[in-house]
């Protein structure tokens, strides 16, 4: 089975699809563009001039945004009005414009990534990276990039030394307050842990066996899980991408928070996608890839539906941004358009959206408590 991938399209540059963007302005009741423009490119500098290469995962800390710039094989930082490169090196580009990937631990400017898919802040201002096509989990330290999980080859193996373990296309990482790294080991259909001592272990799922099953940690099944988020109480929320569901790992059990689907999608093992707000299994998703927590509200990048959804603690799902059509337009959140958003991050009332198909970072204000009150 091939992992589901959304490739943004430079062909979005067509008449009527672009609108005037207000770069860097976060306005009440509006979705706005922070940085980037549609199309594959690479440019550091002020927000309005910066370019990304269909970036995917993002994370925010004290207003600074870390970005896995997937198509450019880099990790970038967004903040204080500018975009800069944090680590990685562009060796060259293919005919489409994507940068060549590589695998090298080295100083920041001489390191290589291959398909960096997600990132999170780690041990202060270090950044942990799901280096998907290298089948590895890497860390950007103060001066050096080094591997804490995986050997650069695909497989499944646990180890007391993380760099001797094997992963298969990890696409999500999240770090808890103790320094434990949770890894969405996508190709192995499971969730794994790298602890503060560098030891790897299985958290949930049946390694190398995709499927759908709620239950105990050892009996549960995922299907190509995407990104994940960890709450302060240790609950782990997972975009179970292939199953079109949002799952929760808590108290030794895996349960479904939202999403339901029957049958198979075309001739694949994926569950049928859809688009519908609702409660619990009534809600329908289309290959959701990104997730974050806004206090006690789960926010999901519903990639295939080109929208952002919010989920209450009791599983009520509502769309909060995007009109369902692929496009690039600022405005009222439900009237504005996104293109295959891959991830979300929230801090201090601001929601950041990795609008992957548009190679842009979008923002909007979001109050979780006000949103919950609106459901009453």
How would you describe the overall organization of this protein?
Helix content is 2%, strand content 36%. The protein is mainly β and 376 residues long. Strands 2-6-5-4-3 form a 5-stranded antiparallel β-sheet, with no helix packed on it. It has a 5-stranded antiparallel β-sheet with strand order 15-19-18-17-16, with no helix packed on it. It has a 5-stranded antiparallel β-sheet with strand order 20-24-23-22-21. Strand 13 and strand 14 (200-205) form a beta hairpin. The model is unreliable at 4-20 (pLDDT under 50).
Layout of helices and strands:
Blueprint lengths: L31 E5 L8 E2 L11 E4 L2 E6 L4 E6 L2 E7 L27 E7 L3 E6 L4 E5 L4 E5 L22 E4 L5 E5 L4 E5 L5 E6 L9 E2 L11 E3 L5 E5 L4 E6 L2 E6 L19 E2 L10 E5 L2 E6 L4 E5 L4 E6 L21 E5 L2 E6 L4 E6 L2 H7 L2
Antiparallel strand pairs: 1-27, 2-6, 3-4, 4-5, 5-6, 7-8, 8-9, 9-10, 11-12, 12-13, 13-14, 15-19, 16-17, 17-18, 18-19, 20-24, 21-22, 22-23, 23-24, 25-26, 26-27
Provide a quick synopsis of the model.
The chain is mostly beta strands and 376 residues long. The chain has one helix at residues 368-374, and strands spanning 32-36, 45-46, 58-61, 64-69, 74-79, 82-88, 116-122, 126-131, 136-140, 145-149, 172-175, 181-185, 190-194, 200-205, 215-216, 228-230, 236-240, 245-250, 253-258, 278-279, 290-294, 297-302, 307-311, 316-321, 343-347, 350-355, 360-365.
